[in-house]
Amino acid sequence: MIKNSQNTMLDDVDKAALRALQDDGRLTNVDLARRINLSTPATHARVRRLEKDGYIRKYAAVVDREKAGYDLLCFIHISMQMHQLEQVENFRRLVQDMPEVLECHHITGEYDYLLKVVLRNRKDLERFVVDRLTPIPGVARIHTSLVFTEVKSTTALPLE
Fold first, then answer.
1. What is the β-pairing status of strands 72-80 and 139-146?
2. Rounded Cα gap, residues 111 and 113, in angstroms
3. From 32's CA, which of 5, 41, 85, 115 has a CA 20 to 30 Å away?
4. DSSP 8-state code for residue 8
5. 51 Cβ partners below 8 Å, 6+ apart?
6. Which residue, 147, 75, 80, 74, is CA-closest to 110?
7. Quick check: 155 and 108 in contact, CB under 8 A?
8. Are 80 and 91 contacting, i.e. CB atoms less than 8 angstroms apart?
9. How confident is the model at residue 94 (pLDDT cuts 50, 70, 90)?
10. Is the pLDDT of residue 70 over 70?
């Protein structure tokens, strides 16, 4: 069983429902009930509880970035000069407002932040780094890695 921070337990049926919804978030309640061998009303109540308890945060369509015109996928490491609260909060606020940034993680090690960024081309990358990241107060170092091939990309958690 898996517990969340509110000590709500996930049983095998919950995990089966979550696995099915991670695979296809557009499953109807009837189809989901069939997959997890539960009645439709019981399935509906379970999914509502999983949503209420925060296990299911939202439903979304996964868009093919290359078909949408975003040829570059980059990982950008950021080091801050000093870790003053005001600069850190400002950096986080600015990054949250950048639609190109898919993910931002505060990390340990040589760098402070790791950004996952999508851009249309190398000119967009140059503008993003030079015009958007470099001017942020407190940013000391920027290291960019370009992705050649996405070997695996998933949003599904390994619920066991």
1. antiparallel
2. 6
3. 5
4. P
5. none
6. 80
7. no
8. yes
9. very high
10. yes
* Rg of the chain, C-alpha, whole Å: 20
- pLDDT tens across 143-157, in order? 999 999 999 999 999
* Band (108; pLDDT cuts 50, 70, 90): very high
Residue 160: band (very low, low, confident or very high) from pLDDT cuts 50, 70, 90: confident
Cα distance between residue 119 and residue 76, in whole Å: 12
Long-range Cβ contact pairs of 33-40 (< 8 A, separation 24 or more): 38/13
CA dihedral sign of residues 18, 20, 23, 27: negative
| Residue 59 predicted with pLDDT over 70 | yes
Is the Cβ–Cβ distance between 18 and 50 less than 8 Å?
yes
**pTM for the full predicted model:** 0.88
Q: Is residue 50 within 8 Å of 13, Cβ to Cβ?
A: no
Q: In which residue are the tokens 């517990």 written? A: 3
Question: CA torsion 148→152→156→160, rounded to 10°?
Answer: -150
- For 110-138, how does the pLDDT look when each residue is reduced to its tens digit (9 = 90+)? 999 999 999 999 999 999 999 999 999 99
d(CA 52, CA 103): 24
Domains of the chain: 2-52 (1.10.10.10), 72-146 (3.30.70.920)
